[in-house]
Amino acid sequence: MPVIIDTEKCGKIQNCPGEGLCIKICEQNAIEEREGDVFLIPEKCDDCDLCIQSCPNKAISKDG
Predict the structure, then answer these.
(1) Count of Cβ atoms closer than 10 Å to residue 8 Cβ
(2) Are 27 and 18 spatial neighbours (Cβ–Cβ below 8 Å)?
(3) Structural domains of the chain, count
(4) Distance between CA atoms of residues 45 and 8, nearest Å
(5) Which one of 25, 43, 50, 55 is at 20 to 30 Å from 17 when CA atoms are compared?
(6) CATH number of the domain within which 44 lies
(7) Domain range for 13
(8) Whole-model pTM over 0.85
């Protein structure tokens, strides 16, 4: 099951204490930046959960 990004908690790259850490650590390139927003490419997500563990805003989860 691909992860879910809560866009309200995320606050976009500009408000991320990790400066887009989820994008930087995703080995599958399943998370990318699009116009300042964090965007998930579900078909690339391999359920490693690194982004969930690393998100400083707790904006990424497996359940909405």
Answers:
(1) 8
(2) no
(3) 1
(4) 21
(5) 43
(6) 3.30.70.20
(7) 4-58
(8) yes
